[in-house]
Amino acid sequence: METKDIKAFGSEAAEAPLKTLDIKRRAVQAHDVEIEILYCGICHSDLHSARNEWHGTMYPIVPGHEIVGRVTKVGDHVKNFKVGQLAGVGCMVDSCRECDYCKNDLEQYCDEGNILTFNSPDKHLGGHTFGGYSQSIVVDENYVLHISDKLDLAGVAPLLCAGITTYSPLKHWKVGPGQKVGIVGIGGLGHMGIKLAKAMGAHVVVFTTSVSKFEAAKELGADEVVLSTDPEQMAKHAKSLNFILDCVSAEHNIDSYLNLLKVDGTLTLVGAPMEPLPVTSFSLLLGRRSFAGSAIGGIAETQEMLDFCAEHNITADIEIIGVNEVNDAYERLLKGDIKYRFVIDMASLK
Ligand SMILES: [Zn+2]
Ligand SMILES: [Zn+2]
User: Fold this and answer.
1) Ion ligand 1 residues within 5 Å by Cβ
2) What is the per-residue DSSP string for 11-48?
3) Residues 6+ apart with CB under 8 A from 113
4) 33 CA from centroid of ligand 2 (Å)
5) What is the mean pLDDT of residues 283-291?
6) For the CA atoms of 164, 226, 211, 198, what is the dihedral angle to 10 degrees?
7) Which ligand number lies closest to the CA of residue 166?
């Protein structure tokens, strides 16, 4: 298969810093869209993967799955994209398309395992897929998203992972007007959860371990902010929440949150703590509560989320950096020193 040489930014070993690399993209096939990448968000999973913290990283790795850019070429059979349009790519670039989940717009749970944007087997070129820290990407049009030109493009990039990861569970558990919804944690995911739950019409209660984040939570749209380390403040919300979106990736006390749910309430994890989280049976039994999880969202739902954000004027709060600042940004990410997402300006990759 014909290929095209492009520049990318990635690393060759778990301990190595990221640097400029040369990679190949496949030539545009009949159903493919080629996108010049303008911005790519930095997700925590980029860092975990680059450093092989979840194991199974194939090197060299080019992270990045919050991709927005402009269509530069389309294959002969492409129906829904034209050269010059804005386009986005999220966490997946393909899936089996045959299983029940794929047929029902749940490609994120594909039976065969979907093809992730980076670090998945590349069925076209062999080797593995390379993500958005690069000049361009070639993706089957069925896995490409339409992007509105009404929103700030750099701020749209994080919607492709952080946005859909929080939107999908809020929709699945039918968050809306008249409901009291908890958002735990105010990071890349949590800040999107607050904005989206608010736009869906819920009364939003934000839980944080830090008084210093109270103002920021309110600015993002929180109706109430609770210091989760203060048992008195927590007790005030006992048995009162319909749904809790838990966006924390560190160890934390799940029971203390389950006890804030009403009867039939659900707490859904979207953060990914490395260690198992203990749960006391009675926090679930008394109140018929559910403890659940959710991973990204399907392609159709990702488009629905992008359209919802365009309609409600929602983007991520970001700090734009150049590729040469990515290694420093990873260190700052570990310290939580970012409000709330780094986005790489890909024009800086030469
Ligand atoms: Zn991500
Ligand atoms: Zn499938």
Assistant:
1) 43, 45, 161
2) BSSTTSPPEEEEEEEEPP-TTEEEEEEEEEE--HHHHH
3) none
4) 21
5) 97
6) 40
7) 1
The bound ligand whose nearest atom lies closest to the alpha carbon of 297 is 1
How far from chain centre, in Å, is Cα 129?
18
**Each residue of 225-265: pLDDT tens digit?**
999 999 999 999 999 999 999 999 989 999 999 999 999 99
Q: Which tens digits make up the pLDDT trace of 2-31?
A: 999 999 999 999 999 999 999 999 999 999
Q: What is the pLDDT of residue 65?
A: 98
Can you tell me the distance from the alpha carbon of 146 to that of 106, in angstroms, rounded to the nearest whole number? 18
For ligand 1, the distance from its centroid to the CA atom of residue 162, given in whole angstroms, is 6
Distance 115 CA to ligand 1 centre (A): 14
* Helix boundaries (H) for the chain: 44-50, 100-103, 153-156, 162-172, 188-199, 214-220, 231-235, 254-258, 281-285, 299-312, 326-334
Q: Do the Cβ atoms of 141 and 30 come closer than 8 Å?
A: no
| pTM listed for this prediction | 0.97
